[in-house]
Amino acid sequence: MAGMEASEARSWLRCYRCWSTDLEVQVHYEGIHKIDAETGERTDAVDELQEAVVQCLECMHDQPHLGFHNGRVEPIEDRWERMIAGTPWVASCTVTVDAEEVETCSGPEAGDALSYAAFGDHGTREFFTHVRFHKHDGDKIVVHLLVELYARSPEEASQVLEEAARGQLAITSLAEESRPPASTGDGRH
Length: 189
Known about the structure:
CATH 3.30.70; 2 domains
């Protein structure tokens, strides 16, 4: 049974795009600690922030289905099965958001700002988004995007988009793409 559990664990411990198991975790830590006046050692944490990103070293994509907790990479329950077992879907859609939700709509950061306004963290970390254009409509901004996401069915893909949308979503088309080939582990795909 122990071998079976290890095999099941490894099913999520790979890149969801190229299936490589050559992953690394990048941990960013900020902390403010009190200092013991006698020893000079740090004591109580006043404030701590740890952020970690798991990345594939083969295709260099972030792995939003994996998190880093207690010194270990673990699957994120609400998305790992969808991303590992699913296939890529491409949606053409619009999301109408309040203009105040958009940090900037021009310049080099506009794409990320519009993607974030439309889908939050999903738009900048989990989905591959391409902002085609945007329109100002009074106090609203209509963001037109192409979005690639991973799902097991068109219904699941639509549901994931609907749950992530931070405004009114309209999906104009949704098409399944083929999954990239699995990594061979020797640098060739």
